[in-house]
Design brief:
- The chain is α/β, with parallel strands linked by helices.
- The chain contains 6 helices and 4 strands, in the order E-H-H-E-H-H-E-H-E-H.
- It is about 30% helix and about 15% strand.
Length: about 160
């Protein structure tokens, strides 16, 4: 089984390419790690409470969790499990330790409109470029027009 690391800002765009990427590894299933990256604080009080952090997880929309579970079901022949995680750190050494601990085989670059959600969010591309783990190329998928409502033309009776 392969494990893929995907930076996420908890939007639909973070999930959009998963089926196409997982298809590349078929018949082998993949584990997906959706991760938002935060630099670690300098505040001693916050460091002491780091193991009890859940404030960031409260900002993950419920529909993001729901969509991840739906993808696991819909693409169960491709995806073993989707993990949602928050990475705390800002050095390549700590990032490599995270990748090794979770046995990450490849990294998917963040989507074009990736947003930094918190004051201590970091741009994942900075660490990804330096980590030495294989980065997948050409992972973009055709855009999906969300919130597009097609309306039927109204028929008007002529006199």
């Amino acid at each position: 089984m392969k494990t893929l690391f995907i930076p996420t800002d908890f939007t639909y765009q973070s999930l959009q390419s998963i089926p196409n990427i997982a298809q590349q590894y078929y018949p082998q299933k993949v584990d997906i790690r959706l991760v938002h990256m935060l630099k670690i604080t300098d505040n001693i009080g916050e460091l002491l409470m780091l193991s009890r952090r859940s404030a960031e997880y409260k900002h993950i929309p419920d529909n993001f969790y729901i969509r991840c579970r739906e993808m696991e079901k819909d693409f169960s022949h491709l995806i073993n499990r989707i993990h949602i995680d928050i990475f705390y750190g800002s050095t390549v050494a700590v990032f490599n330790n995270y990748l090794d601990a979770h046995e990450v085989d490849a990294i998917v670059p963040p989507h074009d409109n990736y947003k930094l959600l918190f004051k201590n969010s970091i741009n994942p591309e900075v660490l990804i470029e330096k980590c030495g783990t294989r980065v997948l190329a050409n992972t973009e998928t055709a855009g999906v027009m969300a919130n597009l409502i097609a309306e039927e033309p109204e028929l008007i009776e002529q006199q």
